[in-house]
Amino acid sequence: MKFRGRKYRISLSSGEIIIPLIALLFVLSYYFEVINLSPKTLLLVKPTLYLCFILSLFIFFKDGIKVSKIPKSAPPTLEHNLPGLAKKIGILLRNKTTRVILITPIAFLAIEKLGFIPIAFLYIIFTMYLLGQRKVLIFIFIPPVILLAIYFVFQVYLHVPLPMGILKGVW
After folding, report:
1. Mind listing the pLDDT tens digit for each residue in 34-69?
2. Cβ(27)–Cβ(52) under 8 Å?
């Protein structure tokens, strides 16, 4: 994705920004979930969240955004030749990164009602599929392993509750 001004061109490398953006959204979401916990519980959680936030921003700006000066003789780019907003949106929606960025807020909104475990499971599967993963064994083994690791780190080790949603009382 490129944005062009009169003198500078800003380009976003979609492969380089997706992971920092997702990490940043998860960190912000989790921060707002745990902000009202006891000070003893937050001793380890807050510095870890702040570090993840800073690292996500650093990686996003270091690898994902490129600013370059436009030479005076540069030809107009494709973005200037598209006749309408509809074509631009159509091109944007064909991009894998845009699709993942669009499903991320939906997942965040659903976490409170449905719980972290089922939404994260579906989010991991949809994201892997959108990014091109088609092996069934990967879909079967990777999401549960990731969710078990998250559950044990936060729930068991750090004693930080995950939103349970529909699983409240079952787990």
Report:
1. 888 888 877 777 788 888 878 877 877 777 777 777
2. yes
> In degrees rounded to 5, what are phi and psi of residue 28?
-65, -40
Which residue type is seen at 130?
L
- Name the most confidently modeled range: 89-98, 104-113, 118-127: 118-127
Q: What's the burial of 115, exposed, middle or buried (CB within 10 Å: 0-12/13-18/19+)? A: buried
Q: Which single residue is written with the structure tokens 């959680």?
A: 45
Other CB atoms within 10 Å distance of the CB of residue 130: 15
Angstrom distance (rounded) from CA 169 to CA 107 = 22
